[in-house]
């Protein structure tokens, strides 16, 4: 059975830096991403319709995370798949910060510190784990834009992940935490 790929692969008018897609996001975090419209009233972040105009790549990362973490190989079919890979690796890193005994407040502090840390590697940096599949930005401006976009993705993913992991109250979901030891493609950020 093949891994699940991004539904945003068919989007043609997408800005690409290196070969990493800068897709629109439904976010309140400042950054270079084009903002999508907010969810319709009465719709939860947990059940966004993939055919709706507010469905974004971060919803896709969270919905495909558990299925795709079982795959050691992933055929990249386009720039949107690279965003999916990066998002899955970041979610894995965040889940590693959440311990089964942590309250929501403690987990929020640990995960948001990870998301807000600006010393993360981008494609082209020596410490970036997937340089063989990602191209480096052409110049310094593109590199800074990519770093800002990835920071925006990290912050929004952290908020949405915490909402899912702690959906049942003040204790983390054991179903989400069961994926802390799994490494997508055998890699970690």
Walk me through the topology:
Elements: E1 15-17, E2 20-22, H1 57-68, H2 79-97, H3 104-116, H4 140-165, H5 174-177
Antiparallel strand pairs: 1-2
Helix pairs in contact: 1-2, 2-4, 3-4
Describe the structure.
With 189 residues, the protein is mainly alpha-helical. It is built from five helices and two strands. The chain has a two-stranded antiparallel ribbon with strand order 1-2. A hairpin with a 2-residue loop joins strand 1 and strand 2. Helix 1 packs across helix 2, helix 2 crosses helix 4 and helix 3 runs antiparallel to helix 4. The longest helix is centred in the last third of the chain and has 26 residues. The chain is globular. It starts with 14 loop residues before the first strand and ends in a 12-residue tail after the last helix.
β-strand number: 2
Strands ordered across the widest β-sheet = 1-2
Strand content: under 5%
Radius of gyration: 16 Å
Helix content: 25-40%
Termini distance?
A: 26 Å
What's the number of helices? 5
The rough form would be described as: globular
Q: Which parts are unreliable, with pLDDT below 50 for 5 consecutive residues or more? A: none
Question: How confident is the prediction overall: mean pLDDT?
Answer: 89
SS-derived structural category: mainly alpha
Largest sheet: 2 strands, antiparallel
**Element order: H for helix, E for strand:** EEHHHHH
């Amino acid at each position: 059975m093949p891994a699940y790929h991004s539904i945003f692969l068919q989007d043609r008018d997408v800005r690409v830096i290196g070969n990493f897609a800068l897709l629109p996001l439904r976010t309140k975090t400042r950054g270079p991403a084009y903002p999508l419209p907010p969810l319709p009233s009465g719709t939860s972040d947990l059940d966004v319709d993939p055919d709706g105009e507010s469905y974004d790549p971060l919803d896709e990362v969270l919905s495909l995370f558990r299925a795709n973490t079982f795959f050691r190989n992933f055929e990249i079919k386009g720039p949107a798949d690279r965003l999916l890979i990066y998002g899955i690796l970041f979610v894995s890193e965040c889940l590693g910060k959440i311990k089964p005994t942590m309250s929501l407040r403690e987990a929020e502090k640990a995960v948001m510190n990870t998301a807000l840390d600006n010393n993360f590697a981008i494609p082209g940096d020596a410490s970036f784990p997937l340089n063989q599949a990602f191209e480096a930005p052409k110049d310094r401006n593109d590199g800074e834009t990519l770093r800002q976009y990835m920071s925006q993705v990290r912050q929004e993913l952290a908020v949405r992940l915490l909402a899912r992991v702690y959906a049942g109250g003040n204790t983390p979901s054991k179903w989400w935490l069961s994926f802390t030891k799994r490494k997508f493609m055998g890699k970690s950020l």
